[in-house]
Write a structure and sequence with these properties.
201 residues, alpha/beta, two-stranded antiparallel ribbon, 9 strands, globular
């Protein structure tokens, strides 16, 4: 994939091997998200490896895969899905997830929840974003710079690690459907092979 690279100052040098992907939603538009994640002059600096916008062509890499993006370092009541991939130190504390995960930000529209809080709207993710996200995640499995294995347990959302963060569950579900589902032709071929084997018994 030929993705424009714009080095953010908000990162830590590697090399580290990434084993999982963390999905995020931005509250702002694509250009604003890239600018925000590249701003070194604000408190609580953050970044991501990639930002994918809602329009075709809107994608930027901000951090090399072997380096550490600051996207999921705060841990708060991680759920079981997160715990399946979270690494621990010798003292049983959790290793900072930034060390071994790839952060991907999807620019989303916004919604207002029942408490009047403005939050990203996961229903605004476009077909372009899903196509690029699926292609990008699949490419990690064949990249010698990562230790990523294409499996549903290795794809989580920010809210899995920190319970107060965004939880784009439908985005994860759609991504998994696109990258892990077996095409109809393949299913039929597998079914025919099984039937063949059974007939030989």
């Amino acid at each position: 994939m030929n993705i424009p690279f714009k080095q953010t100052p908000n990162y830590a040098a590697g090399p580290t091997k990434k084993i999982a992907v963390v999905l995020h939603l931005t509250l702002g538009a694509y250009n604003g998200a890239v600018s925000w994640l590249s701003n070194a002059d604000r408190p609580n600096r953050s970044s991501a490896h990639y930002v994918i916008g809602r329009k075709e062509g809107e994608i930027t890499q901000l951090v090399k895969l072997t380096d550490v993006a600051w996207h999921a370092g705060a841990i708060s009541n991680p759920n079981d899905r997160a715990k399946r991939i979270m690494l621990k130190n010798r003292d049983n504390s959790y290793v900072n997830p930034n060390q071994y995960t790839i952060g991907i930000e999807l620019a989303a529209g916004y919604d207002v929840d029942q408490d009047g809080v403005v939050e990203p709207n996961e229903n605004d993710i476009t077909e372009w974003q899903y196509q690029m996200l699926a292609e990008l995640v699949k490419s990690f499995a064949n990249n010698p710079e990562t230790a990523f294995i294409l499996d549903e347990k290795n794809i989580i959302i920010h809210g899995d690690i920190s319970d107060y963060k965004e939880k784009p569950e439908s985005v994860r579900t759609e991504l998994l459907k696109r990258i892990l589902s077996v095409p109809t032709q393949s299913r039929e071929a597998i079914k025919a092979q099984i039937t063949n084997l059974l007939n030989q018994l």
